[in-house]
Design goal:
binds uracil, five-stranded mixed beta sheet, 232 residues, 8 helices, two-stranded antiparallel sheet, 7 strands, binds iron/sulfur cluster, alpha/beta, Uracil-DNA Glycosylase, subunit E
Length: 232
């Protein structure tokens, strides 16, 4: 694997790379992509997961929220951020003045990756690796092209790397407006789109100082909310 820390993760997959590209529809909107993603075999994560969890929301959404990958509940229900992290996210969005119904919510990786706890029943989240993140990137790219938001919120390091490249670090890059790298030469619009990065809601739930972590999440989301108001 080539190793430049600045390399954007979706650049030049090697010959043995995992890749969702062959499963993407050539045309069509979000519904066509959602249907096609349900059949994706672009990396091995589909083998043990229940189903693809595609993004949810309207193409007219003004803000895209990107998480890491579905969790246990999301895997069972087929929708992003419906478990404990989702409940925390909903609360933080409301406090920041963002209505979840006006957002498009998705993940950098569309299948749940897990290991089985001893005893074999409980499924424990395992972070996706760079190969899986790279494989799944075409779906996120399609969503970014199909949803006409001005602001994209990266929830945590995995989403940040997927959107901004491998040199992304939550601690140094959170809470500010960062121009979204151009997704597509065909998207010939003059409008600049921005990424606001913040903590992952699950990191807030795990934090020793949950209150401070939660306040940080809300204040980063407020940066996104203010940007939206300014851009319109
Ligand atoms: N964590 C994520 O990153 N995404 C989800 O959809 C749920 C939990
Ligand atoms: Fe396809 Fe992404 Fe699922 Fe891998 S994780 S099979 S690339 S949808």
């Amino acid at each position: 694997m080539s190793r430049s820390d600045d390399a954007h993760i979706d650049q030049e997959p090697g010959p043995d790379a995992y890749d969702a590209t062959p499963y993407l529809p050539r045309r069509g909107g979000l519904p066509a992509h959602r249907r096609a993603a349900a059949e994706c075999r672009g990396c091995p994560l589909h083998e043990n997961a229940t189903q693809t969890v595609f993004g949810q929301g309207a193409a007219t959404a003004r803000i895209i929220l990107v998480g890491e990958q579905p969790g246990d509940q999301e895997d069972k229900q087929g929708e992003p951020f419906v478990g404990p992290a989702g409940r925390l996210l909903d609360k933080a969005l409301t406090e920041a003045g963002i209505d979840r119904d006006t957002t498009y919510v998705t993940n950098a990786v569309k299948h749940f990756k897990f290991t089985l706890a001893e005893g074999g029943k409980r499924r424990i989240h395992k972070a996706p690796d760079l190969r899986e993140l790279t494989a799944c990137r075409p779906w996120l790219r399609a969503e970014l092209l199909l949803v006409h938001s001005d602001v994209v919120v990266a929830l945590g390091a995995t989403a940040g790397k997927a959107l901004l490249g491998r040199s992304f670090r939550v601690t140094k890059d959170r809470g500010t407006l960062i121009p979204l790298p151009d997704e597509d030469e065909r998207r010939n619009e003059d409008v600049e789109r921005y990424v606001v990065a913040t903590l992952h809601p699950s990191a807030v739930l795990r934090s020793n100082d949950r209150e401070a972590a939660y306040a940080g999440l809300v204040s980063d989301l407020e940066v996104a909310a203010r940007a939206l108001r300014k851009l319109h």
